[in-house]
Amino acid sequence: MPRPTRVALLITLPLVLVSFYFFYSIELHVLLPTLTDASTRHRVVTGLSSILAGKYRAVHHSLHEYDHYTTEPYTGDRQAFTRHIVAVGDLHGDLPNAKRVLKFSGVTDAYGNWTGDVDFFVQTGDIIDRGDDTIALFFLMDRLRAQAHAVGGTVLSHLGNHEWMNAIGDWRYVYPTEIKTFGSIAARQKMISTGRIGRSWAGNYTTASRLPLHPSIGPPNTPYPPKSMKLHYHKQSDDLAIHHYYDHDKPLSHSALSFVHGGLSPTYKGLTPFPTKINQLSESLLQKLQHRVQPPPHPPNSYPGLPVGTTPEEAALYDANGPLWYRGWAMDSEKKVCAQVDKVLAQTGTRRMIMGHTPDFKNIVARCNGKIIIIDTGISHAYGGVLSALSIHYTLTPIGDDSDQRWIEKEVVSAIYADRQEVLIRDTREVVGDFSL
């Protein structure tokens, strides 16, 4: 090697190493904690360390598996599609904290009005009980629903187990100060049965939702299996293999999310068609509760129970294994839930199940690579948990020649807190089909 070349290398090499260390430090201590989740941070740090050990190629490949998609030029006529969803868990009578969450998650502006920055806002139930702001919270949801609808957005609302408890007459978690906001026990009974709140429950709230990430598989609550599949008309079977629920000619068939308050138990018999079956039972049971003579509330009176004429299927909707009370996805071991979740996702035509009900006061919980997400973090001052919201950014982007009908489907799921945002899941895959709108 000529002397000038050796001198240049001796000068350049220290500069390269110093520069690398500088960017390594920035990545490790500044960018990663704010932009990525813990598992991704671990992979990146491991990757950066491996560079020093001469392992760059293998690590680079694992970290940038889909880079060739984003660099592939596209000049066709197909349009990319985006959808932004925000979901919030239990609010339990706390209007100030609810407003804070709605604002920092981008659902509302500084004046409490719909921003238009979100396509769907989902609330998973338990607005009532443990606080005094019942009326104000339900009126806020109705106002946001109307504002969203006016500009093409959607609010999806769910009845939690506490809404159902109140409809039954089980007022164990109702504060005396909250009853005063209605004026009297009788006025409260009327408001949540045939009055304004009760009518909104009957007209605007469901017990379960299936939210497609792309409109090619239908609007919200399009049933799965669809009527085009024979399974739609078959009785739910625990023995049917998972692959029967997938149509390989429709790669977006399960590009959807399920929302429910408690959880979709793997042994619940009313799953399919989803969410139609659950919501039909919910509608019929709620009507019976709201239009019976309202019993004196418990306590101090005896527990009134479900109304006369309740069917076994309606009773199963409300029991511990039903979608309002089930806690298995949050409480059972990782091994057990990860072994069970794929069958339920296959049956319901979804890729993730999102629920509230079982709080973790520190953070939103994602299990089984994000197939299970629990978003109740005890937002209400009754619990003192962290304020949080779940954000889902979905994109379907065309690549290649239009004749090939190739697309890149990307989904980024993040937990949003008052002071930070954490990526929980980042999924990307290539799909082929005619998904143009």
Automatic annotation (TrEMBL):
Keyword S-adenosyl-L-methionine: no
Keyword terms, alphabetized: Membrane, Transmembrane, Transmembrane helix
GO MF annotation, one: hydrolase activity
InterPro entries given in the database record: Calcineurin-like_PHP, Metallo-depent_PP-like
Domain Calcineurin-like phosphoesterase: 84-182
Domain of life: Eukaryota
Membrane spanning residue stretches: 7-24
Classification via Pfam families: Metallophos
Secretion signal, residue range per the UniProt entry: none
Protein's UniProt keywords contain Mitochondrion: no
PANTHER family, A to Z: SHEWANELLA-LIKE PROTEIN PHOSPHATASE 1
Protein name: Metallo-dependent phosphatase-like protein
Organism: Crucibulum laeve
Classification of source organism: Eukaryota, Fungi, Dikarya, Basidiomycota, Agaricomycotina
